[in-house]
Amino acid sequence: MFKPMARKIYIELTPPSEGDAVADKDRIIRALEKDFGSVVMSYDVLKAHYMLLRNFDWKLTVTMIMKGHEWEIIQIERGNTTDKNYGYAVDLGSTTIIMQLVDLATGVILGQESMFNAQIRFGDEILSRIFYAKDKAEHLQEIQVCTLMSLNELIASLQKLTGISSSDCGIMVIGGNTTMIHFLLGLDPWFIFHAPYSPAFNSCGFIRASSLNLQFPGLVYCYPSAANYIGGDIISGLIASELYLNSPISLYMDIGTNGEMILGNNEFLLAAAGAAGPALEGGISKYGMQAKPGAVDSVKIVDNQIVLTTIQNQKPLGICGSGIVDLLAEMLLEGWIDRSGAFVPERSERIVQREEEYAVVYAWSSESASGEELLFTQNDIFSYMDTKAAANTMVAYLLEASGVSPQDIKKVYLAGAFGTHLNLESAITIGLYPDLPRDRFVILGNGSLAGACKLLLDASLYYTSESIIEKMVYLSLGEATDFLTKMFAAKFLPHTDLDLYPTVKEKLKSRNK
């Protein structure tokens, strides 16, 4: 039985009379308070509906939103419309926005649509958008309008896809990083990236969709953030994973433009985060690309030859993050690169010298869609290893701060698109993930979206979402005295200390590398 954030309740009321002159608003609220406790109705809702009440023959359906300590009426309809109760779950990503339409009676996801975040026109990277908006109210408004425009386009797309009117949707739950939620609400996020790195808010509560010009008659709830880099998307993912409920120690990893890590259980939660950079989407390489048709997404070396696959089986255009991880892992195991990431040219004819730099040709000009050689260079490798080292070091820092050993981690939740599509063995081989029994890894997928959907269907999780940030301890990497030392140790494949990676050590040994 679901306990959704939005409820539709059908009531039949006794009409007012000379002996019963209770006001219309009070009459409705009193009927509901018997079962729901505190119920409120805003001025806006009263104004929109008070002239219609007498035409309903006092048989009506109210839509109410659970706001923690009270229910708020957001819509009144003629007759019984309780069979039409829906909500939106949203992952507000800096690159892509995904929205689901959820049936709040059955829990069924009726449709999903996605699109590029229109903010991209102000910069591919978040920092570019922040600088664009800094101290310029008109620029900040432009970014907010673009964000809301994207959400309204997705609302319209879902209505077209499912035939369900947005007027039947009472609630939207959004998971997004701290900066994205600031932009959504038209608040300057500059201080998130400027000392002392304090956002304008962590929790914004419930906001009327109409006040944001969103095209549905309900409320918007954004998952709260815990810190500048630990945003509502991560809190939403934690809710989806249920890591915070269980006694075994678990690790939550979401590696994207930023790397966010949570270590803990039902007694403690330690968080660390930092910039991971564009490497994970192939952005470090001239021929790197996002996971789009034609992107190399997997690589194997068989009989000293590269065998690759691409998205939608098109001719290769470039390489995305999952392909890069495979390429590095395979080259390490085959001896094409050493543990420092340096090429060993004599190991393959595909290792060539271009512009005074060694590179591997993963697609010859005759094999690529562009007719150009597709290269991954020595500098590309070293740049990627910086990103890998940052992620590795964040985990090491959390383990050290908590006094936990890697083997104490019983579950590793891999969130985000990168974690979903990555080859687990390859990621462990290069040291991106800890070397643990493979059955301890859980592919969570889009944790931000999953957590938003989960909250839609269980209103009690509102308290969890608001309280979990009080339990969380955020560790600032800038205060770690030996962080750079740990980073240097992690800039090897898989690590300078091979004993931390016993299965990789065995693979290298068995292949005489």
TrEMBL record:
Q: Which residues form the RACo linker region domain?
A: 2-82
Q: Which domain of life is it from?
A: Bacteria
A UniProt-annotated Pfam family? Raco_middle
Tell me which residues make up the RACo-like middle region domain.
86-244
Q: For the RACo C-terminal domain, which residue ranges apply?
A: 249-505
UniProt xrefs under PANTHER family? IRON-SULFUR CLUSTER PROTEIN, IRON-SULFUR CLUSTER-BINDING PROTEIN-RELATED
What is the protein named? Uncharacterized 2Fe-2 and 4Fe-4S clusters-containing protein, contains DUF4445 domain
> From which source organism is this entry?
Sporobacter termitidis DSM 10068
